[in-house]
Specification:
Order of helices and strands: HEEEHEHHEHEH
Strand content: 15-25%
Number of domains: 2
Number of strands: 6
Mean pLDDT: 80
Shape: extended
Number of helices: 6
Distance between the termini: 32 Å
């Protein structure tokens, strides 16, 4: 577990219901997108994409962040799949070929740095914070009348309301990207945890990241 000093540099308070809750009260969703090979498009197609992207940017009145992530391709799941096929193989010749193929893939990935690239858009929503001071005026002690259960219920209601606002913004982004021919899907809680874990622990390769599972939903 990281010590307290390192945790102070992480701006995330919690991740719940597909939403990243920041320490300052802001909310974020992360949308994973497909890519477009712009160079292979014709001039007319390129102009159309640029025009649609311009319209997309003009259609939003809130903050977004676009970023790409390049990582060394994790070949372990594919190797595990091949080893499972090898165990089930009944024909000796196919066993030999499968085993040789596994060794080829292992040697190839050890000598060649194969990178995978993922693209994401972060959608932001910062709810207005109303601060109250206790002990002032005739109503200074009203906050003490609420039980912990009532306070928790109010906090949950506030979260759901803010989450709804954030999801509406996320849907605007997804539809705008779709008009450009870019597929997009919001990451769920599990995918968000794995994504941020890899971002804050770039040297840790033991746990494979499964954000691509979101695209299959």
């Amino acid at each position: 577990m990281a010590d307290q000093s390192s945790q102070d540099f992480v701006p995330i308070k919690e991740i719940r219901d597909g939403v990243v809750v920041l320490k300052d009260g802001g909310l974020r969703t992360v949308v994973m997108t497909s890519s477009i090979n712009f160079a292979l498009k014709s001039v007319d197609e390129q102009n159309a994409i640029i025009y649609q992207f311009q319209n997309f940017l003009n259609s939003i009145n809130f903050s977004i962040q676009i970023f790409s992530q390049s990582r060394k391709l994790d070949i372990r799941p594919y190797i595990a799949l091949l080893e499972g096929v090898l165990k089930e193989q009944k024909i000796d010749l196919l066993k030999i070929q499968t085993r040789e193929y596994i060794e080829f893939i292992k040697n190839f990935t050890d000598t060649v740095n194969i990178m995978s690239k993922s693209f994401f858009i972060v959608v932001a929503y910062s709810p207005a914070l109303i601060q109250t001071k206790k002990g002032q005026g005739a109503f200074g002690g009203i906050t003490n009348m609420f039980s912990k259960k009532e306070s928790k219920t109010a906090a949950n209601d506030s979260f759901e309301e803010n989450r709804t606002q954030l999801l509406e913004r996320t849907e605007v982004v997804i539809q705008g990207l779709l008009r450009m021919g870019v597929r997009a899907v919001p990451l769920g809680t599990e995918e968000l945890v794995e994504l941020y874990y890899k971002l804050f622990n770039p040297g840790d390769t033991e746990k494979p990241i499964n954000v691509t599972q979101a695209a299959a939903r």
